[in-house]
Amino acid sequence: MEIRLAEKHKLIEVLYVIRECSRQLLEKGIKYWNNSLADYNDISEDIANQFVYLLVIDRVTIGTVTIKPDKSNPKTLVISRLAIYPPYQKRGLAPQVLSFAEDLARKNGSTILKGTTPIEDKSLGQLLEENGFINQGSENEAPDEFISIKFEKRIV
């Protein structure tokens, strides 16, 4: 698998992967992503700012992740929208993406990686914990159906 920066013309591929993962989450009863116009605009802006990465196998986009600086702490990178197209899940790709994010953090002089998971998505929380992230508890400012758990990993 190769991880590379997304280019503007790949926006539809990013949205497609996220939509398919969103459908999968909804089937599990997890309401988290919705592919709204706001998502379209946010992702388009993140691509322009070089924060969106594609996971590619044999020139086919099979996943995406957004890794960008935290607005409140420039020494922190935030991982979001980690999505792997369902047929490619459970193949050990997500830990590779987390390792990539950690390497990127080191290159950028960041000392913390952080992200959130929906409170109901136990498997993603477990994946983060298995890869050295520490559960920081829930965020209370979100509506009940969007309560999420914060995770952090110190970069050394």
Characterize the structure shown:
The protein has 156 residues and is an alpha+beta fold. It has a single domain (2-154), classed as 3-Layer(aba) Sandwich (Aminopeptidase). The chain contains four helices and seven strands. The chain has helices spanning 11-27, 37-48, 93-107, 122-130; strands spanning 2-5, 52-57, 60-70, 73-84, 112-118, 134-138, 148-154. The protein has a seven-stranded mixed sheet. Strand 4, helix 3 (93-107) and strand 5 form a beta-alpha-beta unit. The longest helix has 17 residues, at 11-27. The radius of gyration is 15 Å and the shape is globular. The two termini are 25 Å apart. The mean pLDDT is 89.
- H/I helix tally: 4
User: What is the CATH T-level topology?
Assistant: Aminopeptidase
What composes the largest sheet? 7 strands, mixed
CATH architecture: 3-Layer(aba) Sandwich
Strand line-up of the largest beta sheet = 1-2-3-4-5-7-6
The tally of domains stands at 1
Q: Could you tell me how far the N terminus lies from the C terminus, measured between alpha carbons in angstroms? A: 25 Å
What oligomeric state is this?
A: single chain
| Mean model confidence by pLDDT | 89
CATH superfamily: Gcn5-related N-acetyltransferase (GNAT)
Radius of gyration over all CA atoms, rounded: 15 Å
Order of helices and strands: EHHEEEHEHEE
Q: What structural class do the secondary elements suggest? A: alpha+beta
User: Unreliable runs, pLDDT <50, ≥5 residues?
Assistant: none
What's the count of strands? 7
Outline, from the CA principal axes?
globular
CATH class: Alpha Beta
